[in-house]
Specification:
Elements: H1 2-10, H2 15-19, H3 32-45, H4 53-60, H5 65-87
């Protein structure tokens, strides 16, 4: 999360919002559109099941098919990068410091 945190801050995401990510479903820091995207991302990264119909319907309320494709690609790429770093035991580099 180190580099992604630093990129988020550089892009103007408030630090308080990043800190509230674990509680995104109930935090007032996130709009419904953001909650839908974060819920979709959470369901994508679970290895034990597919994205639920309810979650997909929710994300469709806020995003076009092209935007959903982009979200899916970004989540998939970040998941790959995380697994790659774990495989080679790459430690955080202090970008968020």
């Amino acid at each position: 999360m180190d580099i992604r945190h630093a990129v988020g801050v550089k892009a103007g995401v408030p630090v308080e919002k990043l800190a509230a990510l674990d509680a995104f479903e109930t935090s007032e820091a996130f709009a419904e559109r953001e909650r839908a995207a974060l819920s979709f991302a959470t369901e994508i990264v679970r290895d034990d099941r597919d994205v639920s119909d309810a979650c997909y319907a929710r994300v469709r309320e806020h995003f076009s098919e092209a935007e959903i494709l982009e979200l899916t690609f970004i989540v998939g790429y970040q998941t790959f990068a995380s697994k790659f770093a774990k495989a080679f035991q790459l430690a955080p580099q202090g970008f968020a410091s």
